[in-house]
Amino acid sequence: MAKAVYKFGAGEADGRTSQKALLGGKGANLAEMSTIGIPVPAGFTITTDICTQYVEEGEEKTFPKIKEEVEEGVHHIEEIMDKDFGDEEDPLLVSVRSGAAISMPGMMDTVLNLGLNDTTVKGLAKKSNNERFAWDSYRRFIQMFGDVVLGIEPKEGDHHDPFEEAIQEAKDEKGVENDTELDTEDLKKLVDRFKEITQEYAGQAFPTDPWEQLWDSIGAVFGSWDNPRAEKYRAMNGIPDDMGTAVNVQAMVYGNMGDNSATGVAFTRDAATGENRFNGEFLVNAQGEDVVAGVRTPQEINIVGSKRWADRNDITEEERKENYPSLEELMPEVYKKLDKVQQKLEEHYHDMQDLEFTIQDGRLWILQTRTGKRTGAAMLKMAIDMLDEGMIDKKTAIMRITPNKLDELLHPVFDKQAEADAEVMTKGLPASPGAATGKVVFFADDAEEWAEKGEEVILARVETSPEDVAGMNAANGIMTARGGMTSHAAVVARGMGKCCVAGAGEVEIDYHKRVMKINDYEINEGEWISLSGNTGAVIKDKVKTVDPEISGDFERIMELSDKFRKLGVRTNADTPEDAQKAIDFGATGIGLTRTEHMFFEGERIKAVREMILADDEEGRRKALDKLLPMQREDFEGIFKAMDGYPVTVRLLDPPLHEFVPHEEKNQKEMADELGVPVEEVKAKVESLKEINPMLGHRGCRLGNTYPEITEMQTRAILEAALNCKEDGIDAIPEIMVPLIGTKTELKLQKDVINEVAEELFEERGKKVDYKVGTMIEIPRAALTADEVAEEAEFFSFGTNDLTQMTFGYSRDDAGKFLDIYKEIGVLEHDPFQVLDQTGVGQLVEMGTKKGRQTRPKLKVGICGEHGGEPSSVKFCHKVGMNYVSCSPFRVPIARVAAAQAAVEDEE
Amino acid sequence: MAKAVYKFGAGEADGRTSQKALLGGKGANLAEMSTIGIPVPAGFTITTDICTQYVEEGEEKTFPKIKEEVEEGVHHIEEIMDKDFGDEEDPLLVSVRSGAAISMPGMMDTVLNLGLNDTTVKGLAKKSNNERFAWDSYRRFIQMFGDVVLGIEPKEGDHHDPFEEAIQEAKDEKGVENDTELDTEDLKKLVDRFKEITQEYAGQAFPTDPWEQLWDSIGAVFGSWDNPRAEKYRAMNGIPDDMGTAVNVQAMVYGNMGDNSATGVAFTRDAATGENRFNGEFLVNAQGEDVVAGVRTPQEINIVGSKRWADRNDITEEERKENYPSLEELMPEVYKKLDKVQQKLEEHYHDMQDLEFTIQDGRLWILQTRTGKRTGAAMLKMAIDMLDEGMIDKKTAIMRITPNKLDELLHPVFDKQAEADAEVMTKGLPASPGAATGKVVFFADDAEEWAEKGEEVILARVETSPEDVAGMNAANGIMTARGGMTSHAAVVARGMGKCCVAGAGEVEIDYHKRVMKINDYEINEGEWISLSGNTGAVIKDKVKTVDPEISGDFERIMELSDKFRKLGVRTNADTPEDAQKAIDFGATGIGLTRTEHMFFEGERIKAVREMILADDEEGRRKALDKLLPMQREDFEGIFKAMDGYPVTVRLLDPPLHEFVPHEEKNQKEMADELGVPVEEVKAKVESLKEINPMLGHRGCRLGNTYPEITEMQTRAILEAALNCKEDGIDAIPEIMVPLIGTKTELKLQKDVINEVAEELFEERGKKVDYKVGTMIEIPRAALTADEVAEEAEFFSFGTNDLTQMTFGYSRDDAGKFLDIYKEIGVLEHDPFQVLDQTGVGQLVEMGTKKGRQTRPKLKVGICGEHGGEPSSVKFCHKVGMNYVSCSPFRVPIARVAAAQAAVEDEE
């Protein structure tokens, strides 16, 4: 028979890291640590093969085959730990844990303190000099054994675990509230009660023989491989049923065996700053849970750290030495060993480690090591430092970046302490990152007015619309009561790099009284509130914010990324300011300029409304003529900012009703301004109403029914480009037709564009190169991309709308069920945030492929929200796009994600 | 060189029918007729190859090569027609026509009377004994030659054709209104003026030499191949540029050469009834246009027809013989020849022919023959008669049916005469066929009330909603001012087989005053109006309607179809009555029972609203418990009607806001009924509002957020099935989950359904077989059909919604641009009527294939509007569906279309 038991401990191990399939993840990891000389508590792993045999042949046939090897494994532990299993004086206690190659919920997890019984508990009490600890360990063992090995459950109709109920009874009897208030005698009684429960519920006595305890636990782990929850999980995740789990049996070690014992956690580098400085905390004579519980103040492990800590807390050096000495001072030898271990671990794993250690009777044991979590700043610094130290190579440095974490480095944040003290009134969606504080206003014009007067404001609305954009820009932050991560407020705020909390459903705004109610709070116009775009918190009063500092490490990672990435990174920008911001963040072009926002500014909206109200082409042309010089100016500014980079301008996209007022008062105003009866305005507004505006008269459907709009916009774009050329600016316009569903729609718009261009070039006697392409945002456009590409010189996937139509979800309404859908497992992510590669991605891939069948060099990009989402960016790389385009603040994220995609591709 | 000229005439021809590419459609057809001995005026065809040479090499190189052959062709005509080209006494005149293999607008079309000049016109005058005719022919020739050969156009800034202007001047001078009032002298002057115009506009004299006229015309036809309109048409329709057109030169014949001449049209069978009876009309000494103009009363060609005509018009036999003798009586020999010709034609073409003939000087000429148009009844009768006569086989008989025409046989129609006299106020869309007349009401409840009192009513609404269904059912017909062919009114009316005119945009309804304005008409509640669902006409007053009679031919065609078709045909039916109707029409199952209509009836809506208003699951369950017995009853009725056939029931689909009242008054009523404050109702209605309800909280999103609804419906379906079984009825329920976008959505609903089923079967101690499947109506469902099929036991393509989402068109709003889109060539058909095979069809095909990859025997059907549209049904056959499902009245259409698809497939 093949080897069934793999031993580890004392700097050696039978197994290797690579044997994950045989030893499970945990077993392989323990073997690895042991092999490189890390002092892990000794133990052994029973292989996954044995699990398979157990499931197939049953316990009776399997256990006899491995009996000898398991016994040998226990002896191996006894030897290294210098304790004997079942020994009355100093018993060896072990843990039994399952560990499959892939971590899997639903399986039996852990039994601790195995080996205790009425006799050994006394040895433990004596040895630890802590009778209460020994009995508490014992009662915990019985409870765990009952729960996970014997499968004790509440009886039918009862909802309480009988063990927990017994504890509650004990506390009630004594009149105390906490488990910790039960003393040794209470625990002894509980142990008796627990044994009774075991008999009553499991129909068998609690086994006192440690060997019986061990074999039962091993059997329970193997048996749990086939429990329904684990089976279901495997079925859902495509994990083979014959993979099996391993069992790990390992010596228990305790940090609460007296003043020569301790327990702690440590990091090989500073997880907050990234500084290359070993640091951590520990407690003498304590268990791991004491560190977490926070009853006692943990001490720093080394002198440097300890002194810093004392400084921060205004503690004198004397007091520190007296009350909070470091491990380095208390147990210098052990600390030295620990320091060596941490160095070894970082060298071995090539990354910052977060390790748990226990010192038992002056002997150091490492319980666990794992890659340490870190802040965005620390992530950058560690990657660059390790690269410079030669610990990792360039590709690894890039892969070390979690792209989304870069976001937090680019926006203001709350002062840590201030945030901790803040009074959170409610939470919405963290729609656009950063922190903001200001006086609340409820109308966009107020935001503008107040801001002009030098006030800091937060704009709070039920939801925002294009009319509010100027007010949003004037505010420090935006809050809405309705709408999801891709609502108007969220999208626009992200574009502006401005903090936004969206869809805070508990907020009720009374526009009339200019007040909002949030549960019991009442916030009037002008009162201070604060928003966290990172957590979604809506906070009462002013909270101090801190501006981010961008370190040199940031720039170095960006440069490194640019060397590797194959994807271009453009930006979505509607103004010269946004364009400039994006260039600063490294964008090399604009992938989407929306022209509709421009229609709302100042006087323009008047001309737009005049156009809408016009009865015929002539009337529309008159109004459009007024818009032309303004649009031209917009584009000139953007071309200037993007000198030498391509600028993709999307023709008018939203339905016309977005430009007309829906409130009586404003309709009256509009009527007065245009000199028409208010009835006419009302009738027009009514006639523009749509039941499903998302699927209505918009996009190229406007351009194809009112070609004069396309003519005006084309002229504005190309005149601007020609003007720029005259000023020595290299304008590269790309005209993008939105919402194409058929080739002909594009062809007709292209004809209009080309005609205007020819006319203009003749007028001016000069030309400028331009391209005509289209958004692919309607499923049919992707399905017929081979036809569409006959006309299109470039494609840009509008994955926001494509997601809406492929799923049949309205972004504005899906909030009602999306959260529930994530909860009940229908969706893993909000598909408006993370591109649905399975469904929508198929259309993206198909569209790209079919498009290039017709036009092999077709330039393909993406300009939906997904263009700045790392996993989606990687998908774009995979399908062979030329570029992604995202809001300015996500450009760095896209650059890194693109580089990671390229690196992953090479490997 | 290959042969350039193919002659025809006198029972012979150089060409064959199969040489369409070389001779063009017209040339091949003329050759064919000539070959079988039909007396067509002699002529010749210049091949398409010559056209290609002409385009490539130019006139100078091409014409010399064909000169001899063309001259020979002319001589061939001269010989047969016994006239000489350019002869002063009896000149041969010819027509020159283009004729490509595929008919193509934009090309030069026709020049008539070629060969006339100042000399030959006199010969024609003498020979015809009609000077005015000769000069009129001459001036027409010059005008046509100027227009089409010389390309004379209005000068810049002028909109009038100079020839037409000259005619107007001549009439003004004379003070007359009609062209016919110009006499010979006037025409002579006009000829002079036309020649001047030619000189002035074309810069050349009108060519008097017939040969020059001929060569110029041939050149003009060939040259027009490359004119921009023709080129654009070819580009748009994918017709190769090097295909070329042929030129047909053919002798002119005239029916106005005296009393021995005549002209007429004839049908080999009766186009109205299908009766096998040669019939037609003619006029002595007349031109074709005289027959059309209707100034003189045409006479019947044979005695039988003539007598029938006299009977109908109360004309005595004496008077008939005197004034309206038949051709059979007037020219018995010619008639005999004509009769032989018609027999030959029908035998040759195996179908009813519509032919044009001219008798010149006692000699019969056939100008054209084509397959004759016919009524639905005639179509059926002819197919069956010809099958019985052995003229065609079964497959051909099936192919002879235009499925959509069957519709007119199943609905009431207006009395012909009454319809002709009717006063049409406006036209809307012919949304559901048939004719209806009744007193107009504007509210659904009124329709019900009035109908109960025995009134005939028409329901007129701006648009209808599910609340109106009962009222629609009570009305004779439905008219809406808004909405397209797939609006609620249209879909529901078609389902009911009830006449509907939708989207009559000129109708303004004032609900308050209970009146509608249609242009200048004002129709008050209670006034009679009539609707034609075949033409879309909205008619003032009552118009007499006639019920259709279904002949035995109908049944025979249906039986024949059933023998050939592979597709099953089911029906969409929500009531036992509809189900029965569909069975009568030959449906073998229900493909779609919508359950939401049931929710509106009577007391039910109260319980539905109670459910909606409930705050928690418990409240909803209470209300659902009330609905359960009513739903169960619905299903029992349907199962009974469908005994032995499968019934697919779709779970609740529409968003909940469709069930709550939106008008203040009704909200108050609802509040009173449910005993809650009206504010609560308002708040709920407000909270249910959606910006894009089509993409909102509906379909399985309801079932997955409120599983108790699914539980109730499942229980109702299965309890009904069990009850039916006890009564000996074979209920076969198929439960269909709507609006699936992900596999998990279906899985979760299926779990709920299966749990209820298990529970119920245990309660009752009995089981019933049922299937669980899903609609495929969201693009993502089609894209991931392989995954969805893991859970689905059947698929039903909901192509209405699938079209909405694939195109991004809202059915309710697309009216604003769909018509324009058809006009400017973006769309060929309304995609909601005719399945878009290119785009939506790809998803249907993909969904079917992928679904069957996972589950090879997956049952696949369609239940959108397209399930009853012939070309879409054929597509469904092609992709291998198991069945189509359509409204009861379209079942026969689907049966024939399915048979045709199978026949086409075999061939």
Topology:
Two copies of one chain form a homodimer.
Chain A: E1 5-9, E2 12-13, H1 20-35, E3 43-46, H2 48-57, H3 59-81, E4 84-85, E5 91-92, E6 94-100, E7 110-114, H4 120-128, H5 131-149, H6 162-174, H7 184-202, H8 210-224, H9 228-237, E8 245-251, E9 262-267, E10 279-284, H10 288-293, E11 299-300, H11 303-312, H12 317-323, H13 327-330, H14 332-349, E12 353-360, E13 363-371, H15 376-389, H16 394-399, E14 413-414, H17 416-421, E15 423-427, E16 429-432, E17 435-441, H18 444-452, E18 457-461, H19 469-474, E19 477-480, H20 488-496, E20 499-502, E21 507-510, E22 515-518, E23 521-524, E24 528-532, E25 537-540, E26 545-546, H21 552-564, E27 568-572, H22 576-584, E28 590-594, H23 604-613, H24 617-641, E29 646-650, H25 664-674, H26 678-688, H27 700-705, H28 707-726, E30 732-737, H29 743-764, E31 771-776, H30 779-783, H31 785-788, E32 794-797, H32 799-807, H33 815-823, H34 840-854, E33 859-862, H35 870-878, E34 883-886, H36 891-906
Parallel strand pairs in A: 4-5, 17-18, 18-19, 19-20, 27-28, 27-34, 28-29, 29-30, 30-31, 31-32, 32-33, 33-34
Antiparallel strand pairs in A: 1-2, 1-3, 3-8, 6-7, 6-8, 9-10, 9-12, 10-11, 12-13, 14-26, 15-25, 16-20, 17-24, 21-22, 22-23, 24-25
Helix pairs in contact in A: 2-3, 4-5, 5-7, 6-7, 15-21, 21-36, 22-24, 23-24, 24-28, 25-26, 28-29, 35-36
